[in-house]
Specification:
Elements: H1 19-36, H2 51-74, E1 79-80, H3 85-91, H4 99-118, E2 128-131, E3 137-140, H5 141-164
Parallel strand pairs: 1-2
Antiparallel strand pairs: 2-3
Helix pairs in contact: 1-4, 1-5, 2-4, 2-5
Length: about 160
């Protein structure tokens, strides 16, 4: 994927060193939007997560990506498992969580990931992981970082669109 047709995000590997700042900034906006929402638990359509569920998903994405990056630093070309995004929503009770707590957890998760990203060396950025979804693809840590920025921005747009309804 070089760009997202839905949100317009451009995948630029050269921007990876700035990913930590982009993620923490985006999460600040995300947390403020989530806590400012009138009814963050309400799904606007049955097929679309609520703002709260998107918040939980993004929190978990940040934590999963952090673990993937740490794994890539200590293992050569590890294959990473899918995070089971749809199952997590049910298994972790996304819809029942406290929006204020999720906002705090988003902020903490972003800080934890940013710390790991900021510690990557020039050599580390070239380390790779093997994603197994939607198809098996080898990705370097530049892509992982940029993809995570995309996740934050794309899902922030998802919840803002809902809140305009």
């Amino acid at each position: 994927m070089e760009s997202c047709g839905e949100c317009g995000f451009e995948y630029r590997p050269a921007a990876a060193p700035a990913a930590a700042a982009a993620i923490t900034s985006g999460i600040a906006d995300f947390a403020a939007t989530l806590t400012g929402a009138r009814d963050p638990r309400r799904r606007r359509t049955a097929q679309q997560w609520s703002p709260l569920e998107y918040g939980c998903h993004v929190r978990d994405v940040l934590l999963v990506q952090r673990e993937r990056i740490l794994l890539a630093r200590r293992t050569t070309r590890p294959a990473v498992l899918t995070m089971g995004r749809d199952e997590r929503a049910d298994h972790d009770g996304y819809a029942d969580q406290d929006p204020a707590a999720v906002a705090r957890e988003l902020t903490m998760s972003a800080r934890l990931l940013a710390n790991v990203l900021d510690r990557l060396t020039a050599e580390d950025w070239s380390r790779t992981v093997v994603y197994n979804y939607p198809e098996q693809t080898e990705r370097d840590l530049r892509w992982v970082a940029v993809h995570t920025v995309h996740e934050v921005r794309h899902h922030l747009l998802d919840i803002r669109r809902q809140l305009m309804d």
